[in-house]
Write a structure and sequence with these properties.
Blueprint (H helix, E strand, L loop, with lengths): L8 E6 L7 H12 L4 E4 L19 H12 L2 E5 L9 H9 L13 E7 L7 H14 L2 E2 L6 E2 L6 E2 L4 E2 L2 H21 L4
Parallel strand pairs: 1-2, 1-3, 3-4, 4-5, 4-6
Antiparallel strand pairs: 7-8
């Protein structure tokens, strides 16, 4: 299913299942920053662990919903933490489900942006490198040259109200989203 020709629609995938995760707060702030497009949260919570024995036909029902949600949007922004210096297992599992079947994979040739927040001082550098490596293997079009690492996130959000409060971070995140929107348009020239 191809995206609509009208208003761009971007899917938001959070690489954490925790209800009050910092990355979920960041993902919730993105639609407030750019109102020219619509955003659709795409949940990965119900996906079974990837098992090739289950991956035949359209796959299990939660996988079908997930893949169709990705196909409906013009691009995907993944907002993910870093666990043990790497990609969260639940996100890797979701990317694996979106990588098959290889010729019609939901993420194949899909524009993807990466954002990550962590309480640490180094941001989500290692996690994003691993996510990028997986996306490139899937043949997704990852936004090049732009990076969005949010370090010491606990000082930049109000956890009780679940909002991004740091204006500098909001400014950089808005700029990143705007660059991603331009990337969606540029990807069409790559085919």
């Amino acid at each position: 299913m191809a995206p609509d020709a009208g208003t761009k629609k971007v899917g938001l995938i959070v690489g954490s299942l925790r209800e009050h995760s910092f990355n979920r707060i960041i993902a919730a702030a993105i639609p407030e920053l750019e109102e020219s497009i619509s955003f659709e949260p795409i949940s990965i919570a119900d996906l079974p662990l990837y098992n090739e024995d289950l991956d035949h036909g359209d796959g299990p029902e939660p996988v079908q919903r997930y893949r169709e949600a990705i196909k409906r949007v013009d691009g995907i922004i993944i907002v993910s933490p870093e666990y043990n210096s790497g990609i969260p297992g639940v996100l890797k599992n979701a990317l694996d489900w979106a990588s098959t079947p290889s010729k019609t994979a939901a993420l194949r040739k899909k524009p993807v942006g990466l954002v990550g927040a962590t309480p640490g001082v180094k941001g989500t550098i290692q996690s994003q490198q691993q996510i990028r490596q997986t996306l490139e293997a899937i043949q997704a079009y990852v936004l090049p040259f732009q990076k969005m690492y949010i370090s010491q996130v606990m000082d930049k959000v109000d956890v009780e109200r679940r909002v991004l409060t740091d204006e500098t971070t909001r400014k950089y995140l808005k700029r990143y989203v705007q660059q991603f929107i331009l990337w969606i348009d540029q990807v069409h020239t790559l085919d």
